Amino acid sequence: MPGLRFEKLHPAPVAGVDEAGRGPLAGPVVAAAVILPPRGVPRGLDDSKKLSAAERHRLHDRLLDCARIGIGIVEADEIDRLNIHWATMKAMTLAVDALCAEGMPTHVLVDGNRLPRWGYAATAIVSGDAQSRSIAAASIVAKHTRDRIMIAHAETWPAYNWHSNKGYGCRHHLAALREHGPSPIHRRSFAPVAQAELPFVDPTSLSGHTLQLEVGVAERPKMLMEDRPTPRG
Q1: How far apart, in whole angstroms, are the C-alpha atoms of residue 217 and residue 196?
Q2: What is the CATH number of the domain that holds 135?
Q3: Which residues in the chain land under pLDDT 50?
């Protein structure tokens, strides 16, 4: 389990901040800020990527009972407007702002090598979720929160299999993008989505119908060499 070495460098309360959802093609980027209690910290806190969904769920619920938590969410349309880097910085800022409703942390530990442009005393820690217990807790809360958001979106747009892939560009998701085009919560500034030039077609409305649509230049018949005009010398 990550330790408290970085937390002990500052007077309490110290917050850990991490995000989930920089890489997916759809859905929001979510950040969490967590201040752990002096005692009664749940066992098993670790980088969320090392934990199963069931372990994250269990730890998330334990953290809700014992820790101070702030959440920041930036949706896909704003990601397209800001770009993913600045959208992530905004989500982190929103998370700490939410945490401050119950009092400001003395210091903020942020996973990564960049800090938001904010007024909080803070330290960026590369691989912080593996080194700081507070950041590990934030990574679990952010990941679990975002997963639940994408599972809810999957009920509205089932074709993209977000129950499983959570918006990441796996084979099934990319195939659905080519077939149906992007949904309203896809990130149109991301290349695989931008290349899916079709307007959104709700797959639930296609029952009993066959729809043939051109999906892009890559699938058009290529002109044979002998069909091309001969350059004049």
Answers
A1: 10
A2: 3.30.420.10
A3: 208-233
